[in-house]
Specification:
The chain is mainly beta. The protein is 0% helix and 34% strand. It is elongated.
């Protein structure tokens, strides 16, 4: 007696029988919705592993409460939280590790680069180690930086404020 229904995804049991679970189900495509694989329970985890070499690499998707996490195990065996998605925020590198973020443009290699070890950002370039924000222009754009206000009232705008306050601490 195996316990496998028409929606369960089958796997082997300790008794060497084909079984399934209501926590791991498949729903056939119907109407405008595609097929659905559902993993339920307290803190469900989906894990992918590459164990072809001497090092085991692992990527893990975890649903915990209202947040979905993506973790990666690096070559040293350290689990790194890459991404946390919630209904009110998206966090990248929430553990504050040396994980860089790079966004490529169609014609620019470093359209947006965040270097976590140096705590700096580059736009259209890899960031310089001595600048918090480095923007590079090759002259192909009308402006390197544009600050624009669409406000229609009589108040001033846009306002660009550069402030040096040696008495203020972070």
């Amino acid at each position: 007696g195996a316990a496998l229904t028409d929606t369960h995804i089958g796997f082997g049991s300790a008794a060497n029988l084909l079984t399934g679970s209501a926590n791991f189900t498949f729903t056939e495509e119907s109407g405008g919705n595609g097929p659905t694989v559902l993993l339920t329970g307290d803190k469900p985890i989906f894990q992918m592993r590459d164990d072809t070499g001497a090092t085991l690499y692992r990527t893990e998707f975890v649903q915990s409460g209202a947040s979905m996490f993506i973790f990666h195990r690096d070559s040293t065996g350290t689990d790194k939280e890459l991404l946390r998605l919630s209904n009110s925020y998206i966090r990248i590198n929430d553990d504050g590790l040396d994980i860089d973020v790079k966004m490529e443009g169609e014609n620019v290699d470093h359209l947006f680069s965040l270097d976590a070890a140096q705590d700096n950002i580059g736009i259209a370039t890899a960031p310089d180690s001595d600048a918090l924000l480095h923007i590079k222009d090759d002259g192909s754009k009308a402006a390197t930086v544009r600050v624009e206000s669409t406000d229609t009232d009589a108040d001033v705008g846009p306002v660009l404020e550069l402030k040096r306050n040696p008495g203020e601490t972070a």
